[in-house]
Amino acid sequence: xxxxxxxxxxxxxxxxxxxxxxxxxxxxxxxxxxxxxxxxxxxxxxxxxxxxxxxxxxxxxxxxxxxxxxxxxxxxxxxxxxxxxxxxxxxxxxxxxxxxxxxxxxxxxxxxxxxxxxxxxxxxxxxxxxxxxxxxxxxxxxxxxxxxxxxxxxxxxxxxxxxxxxxxxxxxxxxxxxxxxxxxxxxxxxxxxxxxxxxxxxxxxxxxxxxxxxxxxxxxxxxxxxxxxxxxxxxxxxxxxxxxxxxxxxxxxxxxxxxxxxxxxxxxxxxxxxxxxxxxxxxxxxxxxxxxxxxxxxxxxxxxxxxxxxxxxxxxxxxxxxxxxxxxxxxxxxxxxxxxxxxxxxxxxxxxxxxxxxxxxxxxxxxxxxxxxxxxxxxxxxxxxxxxxxxxxxxxxxxxxxxxxxxxxxxxxxxxxxxxxxxxxxxxxxxxxxxxxxxxxxxxxxxxxxxxxxxxxxxxxxxxxxxxxxxxxxxxxxxxxxxxxxxxxxxxxxxxxxxxxxxxxxxxxxxxxxxxx
Length: 517
Prior knowledge:
Elements: E1 28-34, E2 37-39, E3 43-53, E4 62-70, H1 78-93, E5 99-105, E6 109-117, H2 120-131, H3 141-153, E7 161-169, E8 189-194, H4 200-208, E9 215-218, H5 222-233, E10 236-247, E11 253-258, E12 264-266, E13 270-279, E14 283-292, E15 299-312, E16 315-318, E17 322-329, H6 338-361, H7 365-379, H8 388-402, H9 407-427, H10 445-459, H11 468-478, H12 482-516
Parallel strand pairs: 2-17, 4-5, 4-7, 7-8, 8-9
Antiparallel strand pairs: 1-3, 3-14, 5-6, 10-13, 10-15, 11-14, 12-13, 15-16, 15-17
Helix pairs in contact: 1-2, 1-5, 4-9, 5-10, 6-7, 6-8, 6-9, 7-8, 8-9
């Protein structure tokens, strides 16, 4: 069966006018953090690149979203009621440029509707379908995932669309094969484990098999977890973001590039990382460890070239190269940049939490707790304790420690929390887990907004919910020059780099003349 019956996007009368222009440049802001000096002898040197989604405007790509929902017998009762409320939130937040398909699975999978353009009519019809759901049967996650992927892969309309799958399950897969073996291709699959009987290892694997997908551990409030994922999909700043770092011959050697578990490709001189979609105000930090060879004289040296590309509005944008320069001098006691130290602490803490999870899986809870204590100690005094990220890391460690007090608590709640934490750190993307209101690592401003909206909606689903278009208008009113500033910032940055290059050339010429004399 082919699912090529996706509905076309029919423009509203209000959308019939000419769309305002939007800067293609500046949709991603790049910053470099490094020391300015390095000794003459062979030495290690760290460079951190920070990419931030920027320049959001009222022009956004439409979202093609497929929700894949577990309706097996274990979902009966309160869980199914919470799922219906969470789905109502999703349906009400989408706009006419978006499309939604609903897939359910139990013993088999069912596509309840094709990708439908969101209108008042389709909203009401989809809500009616969701409210009529009943729970029965086994748990065939594989069938649900394969059907969801097929809905997106068979589409007729694919140009300038953001795609995503939100897959929710509350139990172990007990029929239909192993869903963690299903290839997702370029579709980000965001999975949600609901309750204490979920299979977090499978759900985490499904998310990891996709580029940019996350695994959220939901013990209670499904509406909040769905809202955070949706906030990201509705604020994609750029797509197909790819970063390449290239060493400079005879000046540096790339030893390691830390960018989570995003796909990397490398050759003799460069490493390329494919990030996929980047949300507005979302950040990707890349830590590059270089080895600088010994040099005989003091001089300035280019040690790394950085390029990045992305697509927006159907157009491919290639940023001008960024050049990382360092001054080689006799000796240097320049301290490491605070931003670099904080990122190193985050990476180290994430690794220690993973080590603790592996120990707990082996039923070595005492060793796991000791590893968490070690992680806490490493954060004390290492960097500014008042830093918000450091505070959240401490909160995350504390929550994980409490979920490792007994093997039963760990099996039901600790393992899902730990695996969700790992995918969040690996992706540098928010994933709901634990105390969602306190643990906001990698959350964006729109996610913070939708957190409050979902809390209110969950209390009273009959209350009016702001549309996504109203959210955008409010944000643009608060920052009307956002889209323009992003582009201008990029061109100013390029001008500054150009002037610095000219200055370096002139200094080189003058130094040569002085040597000749």
